[in-house]
């Protein structure tokens, strides 16, 4: 034999070190990508603003300068909303996929977005709300109700969970439409909200939902190790001393906090939560500590990236981030569905 | 020795007496079910002609249908209610037949144009024509037909990988449904408010405002497609047995599946282009039909009847404001159909566990 017994541990340690280096590299690259999209989202748009002017607007703004006003009043809030919503969607998607052991789970796919939409529409119709910052609580309530319904019927079976989610969406859609047909005011607010966009949401909404995102992110970080055990199956996780029910409950709370927050920030955005964890898993493997971290970085990259693409793709207007994100995410879902893993289920 | 019908020899050797008895029993059951459904449809049709903004007594409504009565009655019945009634029946029949083909071909009770995104694709096509090009009438129908066909072909193209796997087909469909609905949301958001509101009504589907030419297109198209389906229906039962058995019986499974699915997509595109996507009819009608007759080929016929009855009943409910508001037909079918699908999913799991 060429390899001496003593060499085996070193090479194993080397392998671990190499894998860690690879994972760190992926995170650094994701950070770089994040920086690029943040800068792009500040610089690019209908009115292109050069980088030095952006810097000046941030550090030493001149009152009355149009460029500075655009940066401070529109682009910075938009970038911040994109960062927060993207992070929430990416992490929520990773947690859902982990806790359901389901490669095709996502807040939109599971009907959470439509539940939030119905609650918001009813609030506009019955209570006469009109400001997005007032929608927050209803979005949470609706997302939680939809999550409870979907998980109670579809828990444990990956493909079925996606179908139950699609069905709940299909059940809620006519209810939403019924309200919209009765109430023109609600329709007018809803159609701009439903497309999923980073514009028009001021910093006031962000301030309201930021604590929820923070709590959700901390809970998700705490879940990482439990999700790793759960990936081995319920029985093994139980054998390793995990209380699976507790994990499920905490994960459910995390998902509702993050997805509800993202939906109240940016409207019902589908497929970001689906695509991001897949990309993350490609880069760092199946360890949920790394998948969650990288999803938190790649979520904003995808959402802000979609937002920037949407600004550039049409000559004189914008395509909303939600539409572009769905156009990026749908091929990912199709690719996953074509993969061996799912067709075997 | 007497053999029970279930233990009878292969269907090819049909001379055994128990098989004949079983067939006679099935035919009797099919005729009974069809008779009951026909009675139900006649009753619902009478309701549809009678009830409405101006309600006529049933006798007067039926006389007006055959050209007897004063001008007001004739106008209400022949010009307003009859086209609506026919649209409901034809669209329901088309959705029912399409759904039965989808479900038996993909061997999945959940396969329906609503879940697969074909309905949303039709909406995108129609709303693009309405809002983007500012056209109405047949152009909208053409747009819907194109939208449904394009998305069906896309699903097909991406779901095909060494044959057509049914779960893959459904999941790829779900993916395209999300893409289409986000495009739809964008179209509605970027339009003028009043135009957006009428487009919203279209995306729900209604049999209320179907004109003569559209009705003729729907009727003719349905007749042609029904003939096509009748000629390929003998493949349906073997397909339901699974690919291996079907191949053993000499059916080319891929060809049979392609033929059935093409017919189903054409039916959905046709009906949707005229009345809009009536949610869940294509899903619920065949499911009810399978409960009534437990037989592949016959279920197609019964699905046609259940689909027609369902849409007619939904339209009577929708038109007469039983939801507190005069709603498009599709809202009623959606509110009835989605809970049924949820129930199906919930009980399916229990059965699988047991």
UniProtKB/TrEMBL annotation, chain A:
Q: List localization entries.
A: Cell membrane
Q: InterPro entries, from UniProt?
A: ABC_BtuC-like, ABC_transptr_permease_BtuC
- The principal localisation class reads membrane
Q: Which UniProt keywords apply?
A: Cell membrane, Membrane, Transmembrane, Transmembrane helix, Transport
UniProt keyword annotation of Transmembrane present: yes
Membrane topology note: Multi-pass membrane protein
Q: Which Gene3D superfamilies match?
A: ABC transporter involved in vitamin B12 uptake, BtuC (1.10.3470.10)
CDD domains the record matches: TM_ABC_iron-siderophores_like
Similarity annotation: Belongs to the binding-protein-dependent transport system permease family. FecCD subfamily.
Q: Name the PANTHER family on file.
A: FE(3+) DICITRATE TRANSPORT SYSTEM PERMEASE PROTEIN FECC-RELATED, FERRIC ENTEROBACTIN TRANSPORT SYSTEM PERMEASE PROTEIN
Name of the protein described by the UniProt record: Iron chelate uptake ABC transporter family permease subunit
What organism is the protein native to? Isoptericola chiayiensis
Automatic annotation (TrEMBL), chain B:
Top-level taxonomic group: Bacteria
State if Transport is listed as a keyword: yes
Q: Which SUPFAM superfamilies match?
A: ABC transporter involved in vitamin B12 uptake, BtuC
Protein's membrane topology:
Multi-pass membrane protein
Q: Transmembrane region positions?
A: 30-54, 85-103, 115-135, 142-160, 166-189, 255-285, 297-317, 323-346
Keyword Repressor recorded = no
Give the similarity note.
Belongs to the binding-protein-dependent transport system permease family. FecCD subfamily.
Protein name per UniProt = Iron chelate uptake ABC transporter family permease subunit
User: Which organism encodes this protein?
Assistant: Isoptericola chiayiensis
